[in-house]
Amino acid sequence: MWYPCGLKLDDIIGAGMTGYAGRLDAVVKWTHPNDVRFIERERKVYERLGSYHGILRYFGPVENGILLEFAHHGSIRQYRMENAEATPLTTKLRWIQQVTSTICFLHSKGILHADISCNNIFLDLDLNAKVADFAGSVIDREPYLCFYEASYSHPNIKGVCVQSEIFALGSTFYEILTGFKPYPNLSIDEIEKSYSLDEFPPLDGLDICQSIISKCWERSYSGVESLLRDIETEVEASKTKN
Predict the structure, then answer these.
(1) Would you give the distance in Å from CA 33 to the centre of its chain?
(2) CA–CA gap between residue 154 and residue 162 (Å, rounded)
(3) pLDDT tens digits, residue range 52-93?
(4) Taken in order 145, 151, 157, 161, is the CA torsion positive or negative?
(5) Domains, the chain, ordered by start
(6) Residue 185 burial (CB < 10 Å; 0-12/13-18/19+)?
(7) What is the per-residue pLDDT across 142-152, written as a single tens digit (0 to 9) for each?
């Protein structure tokens, strides 16, 4: 059976002689007509990616916008601010693995996100992490239209590339585990100065992923695949501790 973009069998609520009816739990993301290039870039990325468990479901275009899956728990940043003490370590580690696996998938499709952060990773009803917001992403070497937050980018890494993505993932993991962006009390200039000297927030208080975050920030990974392998090893090790 054929389904429109983004729909699946579970969405069907009725059928008749001439067609089917499906229910969507969706939101519309739109922009001003003068900024339509951002929506066009995002639409192009979603249509390249197709259906994948680690991204918000894409249902198709609307006027000056796109129709996307509704994230019941908002972004990880929103959720962590409201549930800092209630989030189990196993859940945080699952998010880290899900996000890294999804970024690995993006790269395999010729896409660099260009704005990885806990503000652009969303949580569905079951608290699974879904990467979103591709309005500034690089696809087929087209120039990026957005850029990482200051605490997610290293000033010595120029532009958007695999290394910039991995550095941003390190900061993402840090925020997932601590509930705060790296250097939350510093100005953008102060963050850039510290990073340019390879001075990063201390990791001593973290229960997991210390070495992984450090390697992301120190640009020790050549690709996301090797980073994902380290995370999978961390996940398996955590199971033996519990």
Answers:
(1) 26
(2) 12
(3) 999 999 999 988 899 999 999 999 999 998 886 789 999 999
(4) negative
(5) 9-69 (3.30.200), 76-241 (1.10.510.10)
(6) exposed
(7) 999 999 999 99
